[in-house]
Design brief:
The chain has 132 residues and is α+β, with helices and mostly antiparallel strands. The chain has one domain: Ribosomal Protein L22, Chain A. It is built from four helices and five strands. The two termini are 19 Å apart. 29% of the residues are buried.
Length: 132
Amino acid sequence: MSAEISGLGVGLVSVPHLQRVLDRFGRRFEERIFLPDELRYAARKRNRAHSLAARLAAKCAGRRALAGVLTGPVPLREIEVARLPSGEPTLRLTRETARTRGFQFGLSLTHDPDFAVASVWLERAPVAPERD
């Protein structure tokens, strides 16, 4: 039995634009969008803006993927870009309702000097048929 794709989303963020926003609004902006672990991860990177742009693109793509399965918009701070033990990026939700529905995220991130792009797919684990 395979998982069922329940939602898809793509996010695109301009790295230079995000850098200007970071320069202008600093921590106030960062703390409204990103979680502490995301900020710590980006702080370790050579180009912090690239890392944050990829995370913002992933959060936006995650919101789009969730739009068809959850009621109402999901705040960006309720979506976390995390790493699996393998190092592969994934999304986690802080919303209990989403966790109880059996959703899993697939995530692909990339960036260049100008843009960060994220693709997200939302899978719902199949329900096994009941046995008599």
